[in-house]
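# nightly structure sweep
# worker-07 picked up a monomer target from the shared queue
# config: single-sequence mode, recycle default, output format = structure tokens
# input follows
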Amino acid sequence: MNQEHLWEQSQGSDGAGFFTGLVAGALIGAGLGVLFAPRRGVELRGQVANSAASVGQSISKTVDGLAERGRVTYESARDAAARARDEFNRVAGDAVKTVENTLNTASDLASTAARRVNQYSSGRA
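# output follows
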């Protein structure tokens, strides 16, 4: 019984120890609650608004960057198409001149051949 009596005294058989633990636990819990409590509504709405504005700015910068790259790509493609058109026109013009020269040469050769044939035929007759 002696040990049981010591155990009861150490546990506060009159409830004072329990009450002290309860108050200490409540104070510690309240302190942790204040420390980790969510922000007030005004602060939370402000934080959400700031986050939304930040996301909006980030999206806007991304869209602006994509638009700029698209513009640069379009201009580059337009310039390449213009150069290709100019080169095609140059090559086509050269081809036309070559064909005209070849046709003129062929026509001249045909005329010369026809004259010689006529001369040969006239001489034999």
